[in-house]
Amino acid sequence: MQRLEQLRAWLASTLPGQAFDLAPASADASFRRYFRATFADGSPSRIVMDAPPEKEDLRPWLHVAELFRVAGAHVPEVLAQDLGQGFLLLSDLGSTTYLQALKVQPDEHRAAHLYADALGSLAAIQCASRPGVLPEYDRALLLRELQLFPEWYVARHKGVTLTAAETATLNATFDKILATNLAEPQVFVHRDYHSRNLMLLEPAAGLGTNPGIIDFQDAVYGPITYDLVSLFKDAYIRWDEAFILDRLIRYWETAKKLGLPVREEFADFHRDFEWMGVQRHIKVLGIFARLYHRDGKDGYLADMPLVMDYLRRACKRYRDLGPLLKLLDRLEPEDVQVGYTF
Question: Strand 220-223 to strand 186-189: parallel, antiparallel, or no bridges (unpaired)?
């Protein structure tokens, strides 16, 4: 309650003379909270980010926001900031995510249009990439993410103790995954470029071009297929593999024309995409388990079966991932099919 009063006092001093109401806008998997400020005089609503400075550093968010804005992506505009208190006043990109929009109107034509916009923004961000500007998505970071799986998913969530042989097999598989990931061409990576972090901007509202992009503070310089995995092997919505393949081919063809560093052959590009997905799905299962067991957030449990299904499908396609599939069969004996298919 004290934190909310601090925020109200800061907003009142930032916008003197403007009467406002605050309502929760959203929360994410971090300690950040978002509030929507509406004004009695009919002024456009604003978003206020509350990032407690002892838990969240606003500087990466501000840095990436500027990088993406200059690249031509539509990110929230920073209207006022107080780094000491951990407050930002931002333009409001609305309250409709891609996920919400696609659930309301679940047809492939609409999805194709929205994803074309998302790929256009992603390509703009990637075209602006250069080394030395964002943290590297290096082996240490990729491996640290993979290790969330044995710690939080296997041991804590499933209550399984791996044998020494299983641990050695898992580590050997991690080495193969990382070797493929790290051999990819490098670009700016949003790191969570999916349907919950892409906002549908209605032209009539004057909010600008689609999509509005949020939750980008963890951006890095890393594998070019990573954000494509986030987008098309989304933990919150399933797409037919034919649809994904079509979108990927369109992206790959456009990327080549733009001079982005994609593989010369689509088959090689697609293999990179699949193996990058394996890394991400292993990580996400660990993160979802940690959010539940450590942070008390149980909403992500319902999304685990879809992520596990993505992981299983990839493991079945590649012989080198056979040992991982065998371990998954011990953890999850039944193959569960879930999600939305359009």
Answer: antiparallel
